[in-house]
Design a protein that fits this description.
Length: 323
Protein backbone atom coordinates (compact mmCIF):
# COMPACT_ATOMS: atom_id res chain seq x y z
CA UNK A 1 0.00 0.00 0.00
CA UNK A 2 2.77 2.39 0.90
CA UNK A 3 4.69 1.31 -2.17
CA UNK A 4 1.70 2.08 -4.39
CA UNK A 5 1.31 5.49 -2.75
CA UNK A 6 4.96 6.31 -3.40
CA UNK A 7 4.61 5.28 -7.01
CA UNK A 8 1.53 7.45 -7.41
CA UNK A 9 3.35 10.42 -5.85
CA UNK A 10 6.34 9.92 -8.10
CA UNK A 11 4.13 9.69 -11.16
CA UNK A 12 2.15 12.80 -10.19
CA UNK A 13 5.43 14.70 -9.59
CA UNK A 14 6.67 13.64 -13.01
CA UNK A 15 3.44 14.81 -14.60
CA UNK A 16 3.66 18.15 -12.80
CA UNK A 17 7.29 18.65 -13.82
CA UNK A 18 6.52 17.77 -17.43
CA UNK A 19 3.49 20.09 -17.44
CA UNK A 20 5.58 23.02 -16.15
CA UNK A 21 8.27 22.32 -18.73
CA UNK A 22 5.67 22.17 -21.48
CA UNK A 23 4.12 25.38 -20.23
CA UNK A 24 7.50 27.14 -20.22
CA UNK A 25 8.34 25.97 -23.72
CA UNK A 26 4.87 26.78 -24.95
CA UNK A 27 5.02 30.33 -23.57
CA UNK A 28 8.28 31.13 -25.41
CA UNK A 29 7.27 33.18 -28.46
CA UNK A 30 9.25 32.64 -31.62
CA UNK A 31 10.50 35.70 -33.52
CA UNK A 32 8.63 36.28 -36.79
CA UNK A 33 10.62 36.48 -40.00
CA UNK A 34 9.72 40.13 -40.60
CA UNK A 35 11.21 41.11 -37.24
CA UNK A 36 14.88 42.10 -37.37
CA UNK A 37 17.28 39.64 -35.70
CA UNK A 38 19.06 40.80 -32.51
CA UNK A 39 22.42 41.59 -34.20
CA UNK A 40 20.74 43.54 -36.99
CA UNK A 41 18.47 45.31 -34.52
CA UNK A 42 21.49 46.36 -32.47
CA UNK A 43 23.19 47.97 -35.46
CA UNK A 44 20.01 49.73 -36.55
CA UNK A 45 19.21 51.08 -33.08
CA UNK A 46 22.77 52.33 -32.61
CA UNK A 47 22.68 54.35 -35.83
CA UNK A 48 19.07 55.40 -35.27
CA UNK A 49 19.72 56.88 -31.81
CA UNK A 50 22.90 58.54 -33.09
CA UNK A 51 20.93 60.10 -35.95
CA UNK A 52 18.32 61.38 -33.50
CA UNK A 53 21.01 63.04 -31.36
CA UNK A 54 22.75 64.60 -34.35
CA UNK A 55 19.46 65.77 -35.85
CA UNK A 56 18.41 67.34 -32.54
CA UNK A 57 21.42 69.66 -32.76
CA UNK A 58 20.27 71.05 -36.10
CA UNK A 59 18.56 74.44 -35.81
CA UNK A 60 17.48 77.23 -38.11
CA UNK A 61 18.18 76.68 -41.78
CA UNK A 62 19.80 73.28 -41.05
CA UNK A 63 16.68 71.69 -39.53
CA UNK A 64 15.97 69.92 -42.81
CA UNK A 65 18.95 67.64 -42.07
CA UNK A 66 17.03 65.91 -39.26
CA UNK A 67 15.06 63.88 -41.77
CA UNK A 68 18.19 63.18 -43.79
CA UNK A 69 19.91 61.62 -40.79
CA UNK A 70 17.01 59.22 -40.24
CA UNK A 71 16.72 58.40 -43.95
CA UNK A 72 20.44 57.68 -43.97
CA UNK A 73 19.94 54.94 -41.35
CA UNK A 74 17.23 53.25 -43.42
CA UNK A 75 19.29 53.44 -46.62
CA UNK A 76 22.42 52.18 -44.90
CA UNK A 77 20.73 49.07 -43.46
CA UNK A 78 18.35 48.56 -46.41
CA UNK A 79 15.18 48.56 -44.28
CA UNK A 80 11.99 50.60 -44.11
CA UNK A 81 10.46 52.59 -41.27
CA UNK A 82 7.61 50.03 -41.08
CA UNK A 83 10.12 47.21 -40.50
CA UNK A 84 11.75 49.10 -37.66
CA UNK A 85 8.42 49.98 -36.05
CA UNK A 86 7.11 46.39 -36.17
CA UNK A 87 10.43 45.10 -34.80
CA UNK A 88 10.30 47.59 -31.91
CA UNK A 89 6.77 46.40 -31.06
CA UNK A 90 7.86 42.76 -30.92
CA UNK A 91 10.98 43.46 -28.82
CA UNK A 92 8.93 45.59 -26.43
CA UNK A 93 6.77 42.50 -25.79
CA UNK A 94 9.93 40.51 -25.13
CA UNK A 95 11.83 42.64 -22.62
CA UNK A 96 14.63 40.12 -22.08
CA UNK A 97 15.61 40.30 -25.73
CA UNK A 98 15.39 44.08 -25.74
CA UNK A 99 17.33 44.41 -22.48
CA UNK A 100 20.17 42.27 -23.86
CA UNK A 101 20.35 44.47 -26.97
CA UNK A 102 20.58 47.69 -24.94
CA UNK A 103 23.26 46.21 -22.70
CA UNK A 104 25.39 45.60 -25.76
CA UNK A 105 24.54 49.10 -27.06
CA UNK A 106 25.75 50.64 -23.80
CA UNK A 107 29.07 48.80 -23.99
CA UNK A 108 29.43 49.76 -27.63
CA UNK A 109 28.75 53.41 -26.89
CA UNK A 110 31.42 53.41 -24.18
CA UNK A 111 33.97 52.00 -26.62
CA UNK A 112 33.08 54.61 -29.23
CA UNK A 113 33.34 57.44 -26.69
CA UNK A 114 36.79 56.25 -25.67
CA UNK A 115 37.85 56.19 -29.32
CA UNK A 116 36.53 59.74 -29.83
CA UNK A 117 38.47 60.94 -26.79
CA UNK A 118 41.66 59.44 -28.22
CA UNK A 119 41.07 61.17 -31.55
CA UNK A 120 40.41 64.48 -29.82
CA UNK A 121 43.61 64.14 -27.82
CA UNK A 122 45.54 63.55 -31.06
CA UNK A 123 44.10 66.73 -32.56
CA UNK A 124 44.76 68.76 -29.41
CA UNK A 125 48.37 67.54 -29.28
CA UNK A 126 48.82 68.53 -32.91
CA UNK A 127 47.40 71.98 -32.21
CA UNK A 128 49.64 72.52 -29.20
CA UNK A 129 52.74 71.41 -31.11
CA UNK A 130 52.49 72.80 -34.66
CA UNK A 131 54.52 71.23 -37.43
CA UNK A 132 57.68 73.17 -38.17
CA UNK A 133 59.86 73.44 -41.25
CA UNK A 134 59.89 75.20 -44.59
CA UNK A 135 57.81 72.34 -46.00
CA UNK A 136 55.43 70.27 -43.88
CA UNK A 137 52.57 67.80 -44.38
CA UNK A 138 49.59 69.14 -42.40
CA UNK A 139 47.22 66.18 -42.99
CA UNK A 140 46.45 64.53 -39.62
CA UNK A 141 43.34 62.45 -40.45
CA UNK A 142 43.27 59.03 -42.12
CA UNK A 143 45.12 59.00 -45.44
CA UNK A 144 42.39 56.90 -47.05
CA UNK A 145 38.59 57.07 -46.90
CA UNK A 146 35.57 55.95 -48.94
CA UNK A 147 32.55 58.03 -49.98
CA UNK A 148 29.10 56.79 -51.00
CA UNK A 149 26.26 58.63 -52.77
CA UNK A 150 24.15 58.45 -49.60
CA UNK A 151 23.57 61.88 -48.01
CA UNK A 152 25.74 62.55 -44.95
CA UNK A 153 28.26 60.03 -46.26
CA UNK A 154 29.08 61.68 -49.60
CA UNK A 155 31.36 64.44 -48.27
CA UNK A 156 34.57 64.40 -46.26
CA UNK A 157 36.78 67.32 -45.29
CA UNK A 158 39.78 68.13 -43.13
CA UNK A 159 40.31 71.58 -41.63
CA UNK A 160 43.71 72.82 -40.42
CA UNK A 161 43.65 75.73 -37.92
CA UNK A 162 46.23 78.51 -37.89
CA UNK A 163 49.40 78.03 -35.87
CA UNK A 164 52.60 79.97 -35.36
CA UNK A 165 54.36 78.17 -38.22
CA UNK A 166 52.07 79.63 -40.89
CA UNK A 167 53.85 82.46 -42.69
CA UNK A 168 52.67 85.16 -45.02
CA UNK A 169 52.66 84.12 -48.68
CA UNK A 170 52.67 80.39 -47.82
CA UNK A 171 51.89 78.01 -50.66
CA UNK A 172 49.31 75.29 -49.89
CA UNK A 173 49.14 72.16 -52.07
CA UNK A 174 46.72 69.24 -51.68
CA UNK A 175 47.32 65.99 -53.57
CA UNK A 176 45.47 62.65 -53.49
CA UNK A 177 44.57 59.65 -55.64
CA UNK A 178 40.96 58.82 -56.52
CA UNK A 179 39.36 55.56 -57.68
CA UNK A 180 35.73 55.06 -58.72
CA UNK A 181 34.14 51.72 -57.80
CA UNK A 182 32.96 50.08 -59.98
CA UNK A 183 35.36 51.26 -62.65
CA UNK A 184 32.63 51.46 -65.27
CA UNK A 185 29.57 53.02 -63.71
CA UNK A 186 26.83 55.52 -64.34
CA UNK A 187 27.99 58.46 -66.44
CA UNK A 188 26.04 60.81 -64.17
CA UNK A 189 28.29 60.20 -61.17
CA UNK A 190 30.73 62.97 -60.40
CA UNK A 191 33.08 64.19 -57.71
CA UNK A 192 34.54 67.61 -56.91
CA UNK A 193 37.62 68.34 -54.80
CA UNK A 194 37.89 71.77 -53.13
CA UNK A 195 40.78 73.53 -51.42
CA UNK A 196 39.88 76.64 -49.41
CA UNK A 197 42.22 79.03 -47.61
CA UNK A 198 40.66 81.58 -45.27
CA UNK A 199 42.73 84.57 -44.21
CA UNK A 200 42.83 86.77 -41.13
CA UNK A 201 41.04 89.59 -42.94
CA UNK A 202 38.09 87.20 -43.65
CA UNK A 203 38.97 86.97 -47.35
CA UNK A 204 38.83 83.54 -49.00
CA UNK A 205 40.92 81.93 -51.71
CA UNK A 206 39.42 78.73 -53.14
CA UNK A 207 39.73 76.40 -56.08
CA UNK A 208 37.48 73.51 -57.21
CA UNK A 209 38.63 70.63 -59.41
CA UNK A 210 36.37 68.06 -61.08
CA UNK A 211 37.65 64.59 -60.21
CA UNK A 212 38.21 62.22 -63.14
CA UNK A 213 39.00 58.52 -63.13
CA UNK A 214 42.70 57.70 -63.18
CA UNK A 215 43.85 61.32 -62.74
CA UNK A 216 45.42 62.30 -59.40
CA UNK A 217 44.08 65.41 -57.73
CA UNK A 218 46.52 68.30 -57.31
CA UNK A 219 45.36 71.74 -56.14
CA UNK A 220 47.76 74.58 -55.31
CA UNK A 221 46.92 77.94 -53.77
CA UNK A 222 49.35 80.79 -53.18
CA UNK A 223 48.64 84.05 -51.41
CA UNK A 224 50.44 87.02 -52.92
CA UNK A 225 48.93 89.68 -50.62
CA UNK A 226 51.09 88.98 -47.55
CA UNK A 227 48.06 88.19 -45.34
CA UNK A 228 48.18 85.64 -42.49
CA UNK A 229 46.29 82.37 -42.97
CA UNK A 230 43.29 81.70 -40.68
CA UNK A 231 42.59 78.07 -41.61
CA UNK A 232 42.87 75.64 -44.51
CA UNK A 233 40.12 73.20 -45.54
CA UNK A 234 40.37 70.36 -48.06
CA UNK A 235 37.24 68.39 -48.98
CA UNK A 236 35.71 65.99 -51.53
CA UNK A 237 32.05 65.81 -52.57
CA UNK A 238 30.69 62.70 -54.35
CA UNK A 239 27.36 62.33 -56.15
CA UNK A 240 25.77 59.42 -58.01
CA UNK A 241 22.31 58.05 -58.76
CA UNK A 242 23.47 54.48 -58.11
CA UNK A 243 23.80 53.50 -54.46
CA UNK A 244 26.37 50.80 -55.25
CA UNK A 245 28.88 53.41 -56.51
CA UNK A 246 31.78 54.33 -54.24
CA UNK A 247 34.68 56.76 -54.40
CA UNK A 248 38.00 55.84 -52.80
CA UNK A 249 40.24 58.79 -51.89
CA UNK A 250 43.77 57.70 -50.97
CA UNK A 251 47.30 59.00 -50.26
CA UNK A 252 46.13 62.39 -49.02
CA UNK A 253 48.84 65.01 -48.56
CA UNK A 254 48.34 68.64 -47.58
CA UNK A 255 51.69 70.38 -47.96
CA UNK A 256 52.62 73.84 -46.75
CA UNK A 257 55.62 75.59 -48.30
CA UNK A 258 57.21 78.79 -47.02
CA UNK A 259 57.85 81.24 -49.86
CA UNK A 260 59.46 84.68 -49.88
CA UNK A 261 57.12 87.70 -49.89
CA UNK A 262 57.18 89.96 -52.96
CA UNK A 263 59.58 92.90 -53.03
CA UNK A 264 58.46 96.41 -52.07
CA UNK A 265 56.78 97.88 -55.15
CA UNK A 266 57.57 101.45 -54.03
CA UNK A 267 61.30 100.78 -54.23
CA UNK A 268 60.85 99.17 -57.61
CA UNK A 269 58.89 102.16 -58.93
CA UNK A 270 61.44 104.70 -57.60
CA UNK A 271 64.27 102.72 -59.10
CA UNK A 272 62.44 102.63 -62.41
CA UNK A 273 61.93 106.41 -62.21
CA UNK A 274 65.63 106.95 -61.57
CA UNK A 275 66.47 104.76 -64.51
CA UNK A 276 64.12 106.71 -66.77
CA UNK A 277 65.60 110.05 -65.65
CA UNK A 278 69.08 108.78 -66.31
CA UNK A 279 68.03 107.59 -69.71
CA UNK A 280 66.44 110.98 -70.45
CA UNK A 281 69.59 112.76 -69.39
CA UNK A 282 71.57 110.42 -71.55
CA UNK A 283 69.30 111.14 -74.49
CA UNK A 284 69.56 114.89 -73.81
CA UNK A 285 73.34 114.85 -73.65
CA UNK A 286 73.37 112.80 -76.80
CA UNK A 287 71.27 115.42 -78.54
CA UNK A 288 73.62 118.17 -77.28
CA UNK A 289 76.61 116.29 -78.51
CA UNK A 290 74.94 115.77 -81.86
CA UNK A 291 74.11 119.45 -82.09
CA UNK A 292 77.68 120.55 -81.28
CA UNK A 293 79.00 118.06 -83.76
CA UNK A 294 76.72 119.50 -86.40
CA UNK A 295 77.78 123.14 -85.63
CA UNK A 296 81.45 122.21 -85.67
CA UNK A 297 80.98 120.48 -88.97
CA UNK A 298 79.35 123.61 -90.35
CA UNK A 299 82.30 125.71 -89.21
CA UNK A 300 84.65 123.26 -90.80
CA UNK A 301 82.67 123.54 -94.00
CA UNK A 302 82.91 127.33 -93.84
CA UNK A 303 86.65 127.15 -93.43
CA UNK A 304 86.89 124.64 -96.18
CA UNK A 305 85.25 126.99 -98.71
CA UNK A 306 88.07 128.53 -100.83
CA UNK A 307 88.21 132.40 -101.17
CA UNK A 308 86.75 133.91 -104.30
CA UNK A 309 89.17 135.13 -107.01
CA UNK A 310 89.32 138.87 -108.09
CA UNK A 311 87.17 139.30 -111.09
CA UNK A 312 88.24 141.96 -113.58
CA UNK A 313 85.58 144.65 -113.67
CA UNK A 314 84.79 146.83 -116.67
CA UNK A 315 86.41 150.29 -116.85
CA UNK A 316 83.20 152.31 -116.51
CA UNK A 317 82.28 150.43 -113.32
CA UNK A 318 85.73 150.98 -111.93
CA UNK A 319 85.61 154.69 -112.65
CA UNK A 320 82.27 155.08 -110.93
CA UNK A 321 83.62 153.49 -107.79
CA UNK A 322 86.64 155.84 -107.79
CA UNK A 323 84.48 158.90 -108.09
Amino acid sequence: MQRSKSKAFSFSFFILHFSLLFLFVGCKVERPKEVLPPSKMEDVLYDYHLAQVMGGEMTGENMYKRGLYIDYVFNKHHITRAQLDSSLVWYARNPKELSAIYERLTARNEREMEYIKQRQSMVSVRGAQPIEGDSADLWYESRHFILTPTPLDNYRSVSIPFDANFHKCDTIRWTCDVVFIPFEGDSTRKAVASLIVRYANDSTLARDVVVTEGTPVSITLHNSDSVNVKNVTAGVYFQSKTHSDHLVVAHNQLMRYHTLPPKDTTTIVSAAADTSSVSKKGRASKKTRTKSVKSSSKEEKKEAVPPKKNVKQPENVRQTIEE
